[in-house]
Amino acid sequence: MLLCLSNRRSARRAAARQLDGGSPFPDRKARSGKSGWNGKGKRRGQVARTTASHATDEEIALARAALGKRNLVFVGLMGAGKSAIGRLIGQWLGVPFIDSDTEIERVSRMTISDLFANYGEEEFRALETRVLERLMKGGPRVVSTGGGAFMNEITRDVIKRKGLSVWLKADLDVLWDRVSRRDTRPLLKTEHPKQTLKALLDKRYPVYAEAEITVISREAPKEAVALDVIRALADHQAMHIQEAHK
Ligand SMILES: Nc1ncnc2c1ncn2[C@@H]1O[C@H](COP(=O)(O)OP(=O)(O)O)[C@@H](O)[C@H]1O
Ligand SMILES: O=C(O)C1=C[C@@H](OP(=O)(O)O)[C@@H](O)[C@H](O)C1
Ligand SMILES: [Mg+2]
């Protein structure tokens, strides 16, 4: 979804008004400054929490509204930041956070590495699908998936039907820099792990592209990427509200 900045601003202002229970479109009262909104997308007297790493109340409210009762589901390759960014977004939105790998480890009482070593990838995928199907029944939550989860047709389908998916997209060098610091990813225990990661990237990116929203997981502090996610969700919701009133 590409929007020019002024379109985005006006869509957000309209959506923010609707969140307040009013019309999403400016009326004379609002423009004359007599409504509760100060024309800058903020309530009178409300201090915006905008800093380099903080979302405004308006952005948070729109992002939260984008979910409704759905789960926000992060997909993407190993090292994209699904677990780290998902946790932050859960905190910022005030929504419970669950990482599907952590949930798999909890129910199996084994680490992901031990699951792969003792039962193989196929068993791991079967468990992953079951866990995600169960997680997608409740909501709203923030759910971070393991990198292979969205590749499974059943899992992808349930995420599309019941969740709002966000692909955290990163380039190979960024991913490699992040994953090479830990040895917890069994798929990368190969002779040439960076090449393995590149092969996974080539195979998976066309599928991750089916996610509803894409956010670049750039080389920046986690909070900066999380803020990009909040803004992408806010824009998504603002456009949704604008479309509904066409
Ligand atoms: N934007 C970021 N900037 C710097 N480090 C990050 C960023 N996002 C994630 N990381 C770090 O990279 C590593 C991998 O992130 P993680 O959330 O585990 O990725 P994933 O769950 O997608 O495999 C973690 O150590 C995390 O703290
Ligand atoms: O890409 C994959 O197939 C996998 C990614 C891992 O999760 P992260 O993407 O959170 O690292 C974990 O589920 C498992 O090692 C398999
Ligand atoms: Mg993870």
TrEMBL record:
Cofactor comment text: Binds 1 Mg(2+) ion per subunit.
Pathway assigned in UniProt: Metabolic intermediate biosynthesis; chorismate biosynthesis; chorismate from D-erythrose 4-phosphate and phosphoenolpyruvate: step 5/7
Signal peptide: none
GO cellular component, one term: cytosol
SUPFAM superfamilies in the cross-refs: P-loop containing nucleoside triphosphate hydrolases
Residues that coordinate or bind Mg(2+): 83
Subcellular location: Cytoplasm
The name this protein goes by in its record: Shikimate kinase
Name of one Pfam family that matches: SKI
Swiss-Prot/TrEMBL catalytic activity: shikimate + ATP = 3-phosphoshikimate + ADP + H(+)
Cofactors named for this entry: Mg(2+)
HAMAP family assigned: Shikimate_kinase
InterPro entries membership: P-loop_NTPase, Shikimate/glucono_kinase, Shikimate_kinase/TSH1, Shikimate_kinase_CS
Species for this entry: Pseudohoeflea suaedae
Taxonomic lineage from the root: Bacteria, Pseudomonadati, Pseudomonadota, Alphaproteobacteria, Hyphomicrobiales
Its biological purpose: Catalyzes the specific phosphorylation of the 3-hydroxyl group of shikimic acid using ATP as a cosubstrate.
Enzyme class: transferase
Single biological process term from Gene Ontology: chorismate biosynthetic process
Gene Ontology terms, MF aspect: ATP binding; magnesium ion binding; shikimate kinase activity
CDD domains in UniProt: SK
Keywords: Amino-acid biosynthesis, Aromatic amino acid biosynthesis, ATP-binding, Cytoplasm, Kinase, Magnesium, Metal-binding, Nucleotide-binding, Transferase
